[in-house]
Amino acid sequence: MSRYISILPSNISSTDDAGYSQGTPLLQFSIGAQENFLIGSTVRLNGTYTRNGASKADSMWEPSLGIYNLLDQLVISSNKTNQTIEHIRNYNRFLATYLPSTSSEDDLMGHMGTNALTGLSFSKQNQADSVDFSIALLQV
Question: How do residues 14-73 score in pLDDT, each as one tens digit?
Fold first, then answer.
């Protein structure tokens, strides 16, 4: 039996935005202890990327990574045991190698272009002020 849950960050208000304007943001998500398993490959991060400033061209990034450019580290830990289960530093650099080796050019322009803003899809949406995204938090 599958269950889907939505979790909001525990360290910022649900009405606030996370951004780089006041330093590097840190988002924390807490899931209470329960008699279920969390399958890491099914965890997705959903949000809206909004460009600020006079020149939208200044907010460009590596097109093969898309929204993954914004992620620096991925840490999965247990609140119950205070143990770190997985800690990936330089997450975006890891994905710069991982994504091209596991995705075709069609993937990066197709569903990844829509969900993670990779490839040419992002440049076509460059005129928009904000764009929704939905990315899987990939782990190895």
Answer: 777 777 776 767 888 888 777 877 777 788 888 888 776 655 555 566 777 888 888 888
> DSSP assignment of 14-67, as one string?
TTSPP-TBTB-----------SS---GGG-EEEEEEE--SS-GGGG---TTTGG
Chain centroid to Cα 24, Å, comes to 14
Q: CA-CA distance, 134 to 114, in Å (whole number)? A: 8
What pTM was computed for the model? Answer: 0.73
On whether residue 66 sits in a domain, the answer given is yes
**Per-residue DSSP letter, 116:** S
Rounded to an integer, what is the distance from CA 72 to the centroid of its chain? 10
Domain membership of residue 18 (yes or no) is no
